[in-house]
Specification:
2 copies of one chain form a homodimer.
Chain A: H1 2-20, H2 27-34, H3 38-45, H4 48-64, H5 68-72, H6 78-95, H7 97-108, H8 113-139, H9 148-163, H10 166-173, H11 185-204
The first copy, chain A, binds a DNA duplex (30 and 30 nucleotides) through helix 3.
DNA sequence: TGAAACTAAACAAACGTTTAATTAAAACAC
DNA sequence: GTGTTTTAATTAAACGTTTGTTTAGTTTCA
């Protein structure tokens, strides 16, 4: 039936877009990879652009969850929330790295206003959530008066940098081509540990 | 004559690629924007792909300079070198943000092996240079034994995050569309101050 | 006069999309 | 349940554009 096949096309599209880009992927490539007729993509989604929008709509909601509940967890202090945020972000972004790469490709481009706005509206709540935790921590006196916007940039930017290109990531890690860091628990732990260390000392160290 | 016009085409290409992407920019768009005949691009560069490679070759060397001399400056201690690195990177990446965005777009994509390798070989020396300063600082006892590779990721990743999309950057800064942060000295200073603060306390604070 | 710079036009191939026809599934009457 | 009608799903083929590239001819200037 329709729905599963639509989702199959979307998942195939994410894989292809992540590797070849949106413009670089023809609907013939996509149809062949998904094992469907060329016309089915327009039949289901209307156009290539609308397929992209459907893809974003479908995956965005799924990706957004589980963060707000950290905020509402009153048993955690601000530093504890930051730790949970770091863990949640590394897990989520590493797992959804293909989708993440696709929307960041499109975010980089200046044309296609509507798509860009769409993507900004997906990513913005994430950064806002972290910002709010920082502001709360500062208000309660638990955190130093740091530059909250740029601290958010440091957290997410570090992860994005590692996700941007597997080849480049392997190069700076001095690893072989066969190693897949994003699926290695040890590497994920390493990233979490680094980010928690950086943020913790930046936020809670009291300068004399 | 030829050379200035070649460079003019390359500069126009950077502007267009940064906004529309490599695949999204037709050589007709490019020829029109540069004010030259369509055939001139293939006449000068051979093909669209070779134009890209020429662009990278031309701009890469120019972008690479001025960093190694920081390394060789023996009057600076490790912390001083990091400060200079931060200042140099923010200035350079903000100034060359269009070129920077173009090569990061291409770096994200998995196909076009040769181009990817080319770009990795451009970016790698930068990260290696920072890494070496960190290693030297650790060896001399001036720095803590931090995760050097991920500390590099935090430095460059933070800047990249801000450069990725003007629209998104403005959103997290809560600024209006007309503001151009990358050309604002105040914002550049803000980014430098944040990065120096984060790195300094991460690297030189002695945990009890 | 001859080589380099430049142009307009044409090229085949690939693109996203649409059409028209066929098959499969569901809905309905009896 | 069986036969009929309607709707949805699927297909191969064709559509008109746009793509990167090339050709063949013209201008420019030393």
């Amino acid at each position: 039936m329709g729905t599963d096949k639509k989702e199959h096309i979307i998942n195939t599209a994410i894989e292809l877009f992540a590797v070849k880009g949106f413009e670089g992927t023809s609907i013939r490539d996509l149809a062949a990879a998904a094992g469907v007729n060329i016309a089915m993509i327009n039949y289901y989604f209307g156009s290539k652009e609308k397929l992209f929008e459907s893809m974003v709509e479908e995956k965005a909601a799924y990706t957004r969850i589980e963060l707000t509940e950290i905020m509402s967890n009153t048993s955690l202090n601000a530093a504890g929330k930051i730790d949970r945020i770091v863990e949640g972000f590394v897990e989520r972004l590493f797992r959804n790295r293909h989708f993440h790469r696709v929307i960041h490709q499109e975010l980089m481009l200046g044309d296609r206003q509507a798509m860009q706005d769409m993507i900004v509206n997906i990513l913005y709540p994430n950064s806002q959530l972290i910002k709010q935790i920082l502001l709360d921590g500062i208000a309660s006196g638990e955190f130093n008066k740091v530059d909250v916007e740029l601290t958010v940039a440091t957290l997410i930017g570090t992860i994005n940098y590692l996700l941007q290109s597997k080849k480049f990531c392997l190069k700076i890690l001095d690893e072989t081509e066969t190693y897949v860091p994003y699926e290695d628990e040890e590497f994920k732990t390493r990233v979490k540990t680094h980010l928690k260390a950086v943020l913790h000392i930046h936020l809670v160290h009291q300068p004399k």
